[in-house]
Amino acid sequence: MNEEKLNIEILELIAASLANEISIENKKKLDLWISESPLNNNVYNDYVNTWELFNKTEITSEINIDDEWEIFKKSAKINEGKIVKFKFASLLKYAASIIIIATISITVYFILNNNKQTEIIAQSQVIVNTLPDGSTISLNSNSKFSYPKVFNKLQRKVKLTGEAFFEVTHNSERPFIIEAGKVLIEDIGTSFYVRYIADENKTEVIVKTGKVAVYKSNNPEQKTYLEAGEHGVFSSTKTNIIKLPENNENYIAWKTHKLDFENENLQNVIKVLERTYNKKIIYSPSISNCKLTVSFKEQSLDAVLNVLKATLNLNIVQKQNYIEISGTGC
């Protein structure tokens, strides 16, 4: 049975249940569907609540039962010459439940479909994608991003594991929210970078333009605001968010292909190179504190390594899955 037919059958079972006209066999089918997931249970409860509200509403004398019955007969193509086995009251109740189902089934359809997620996985290269609202995400290698095919009316919530750069189409009535581990990042008209690696037990947010609000998923009232040029670090083992200044854009070198180092320790340079070029680099402790001042633009990893080798008198060996750097120290 395809998904569309299944949804129609479930709606019919719910309608029969609300009208107390459901068979024992169909009741078992409905109960099984409800127990399959929390979403199914929530959808069923929404129908029940709507039906209970309908039953509490007084039917006024403006409704002519005879006229309504004639309309129902014509629409249902009932032949007067045939015996109708439904009791009239039950039939009206069942018909009413069908009407209730029909009026909110579109909403339920969108609830079910909005729950469907599109997942993007960047393995060895950067992926740039435009979201349904016009926002753009640049996803670095070894990262995963998911979002609903259709954003709901209240918010645009997405999920990130890894690192990405966002250029968000701002909409104050439908905030753009990124879930990165235990941290939520809410756009307030901006472009910004997010890095969340589960093994590192921290989430980093760097704002390039505009402003963002960062807060813990279980404490949305306690927000930390970051503005352009600020770097926020949230540790999963601590409650506070550390704010730091951000003086260069090496954090998005994997996107811009621009690197700028000024009197930087070589160990920090290597970390940036690993994330920029998606290559594991092993280095000897003796060279970790060597200082480097240099800039690169649209350069290959080989070109960058050749400059490091010549500048710091290093030994660089290309292995199959990694690069090994050594030297006498500085």
Topology diagram in text:
Layout: H1 3-18, H2 24-35, H3 38-56, H4 65-76, H5 88-114, E1 117-122, E2 127-130, E3 136-139, E4 143-148, E5 156-167, E6 176-180, E7 183-187, E8 191-197, E9 202-209, E10 211-216, E11 219-227, E12 230-235, E13 241-245, H6 253-256, E14 258-265, H7 266-277, E15 280-283, E16 291-297, H8 301-312, E17 315-318, E18 322-326
Parallel strand pairs: 5-6, 15-18
Antiparallel strand pairs: 1-4, 2-3, 3-5, 4-5, 5-8, 6-7, 7-10, 8-9, 9-12, 10-11, 12-13, 14-16, 17-18
Question: Brief description of this entry?
Answer:
It is built from eight helices and 18 strands. It is an alpha+beta fold. A hairpin with a 4-residue loop joins strand 8 (191-197) and strand 9 (202-209).
Overview of the structural elements:
By secondary structure, the chain is an alpha+beta fold. It folds into three domains: 3-114, no CATH class; 117-245, Jelly Rolls; 250-326, Phage tail protein beta-alpha-beta fold (3-Layer(bab) Sandwich), CATH 3.55.50. The protein is 35% helix and 34% strand. The protein contains eight helices and 18 strands. The protein has helices spanning 3-18, 24-35, 38-56, 65-76, 88-114, 253-256, 266-277, 301-312, and strands at 117-122, 127-130, 136-139, 143-148, 156-167, 176-180, 183-187, 191-197, 202-209, 211-216, 219-227, 230-235, 241-245, 258-265, 280-283, 291-297, 315-318, 322-326. Strands 1, 2, 3, 4, 5, 6, 7, 8, 9, 10, 11, 12 and 13 form a 13-stranded mixed beta sheet that branches. Strand 17 and strand 18 form a beta hairpin. Helix 3 crosses helix 5. The longest helix is centred in the N-terminal third of the chain and has 27 residues, at 88-114. The radius of gyration is 30 Å and the shape is elongated. Mean pLDDT is 79; it is low at 1-6, 57-63, 75-92 and 104-114.
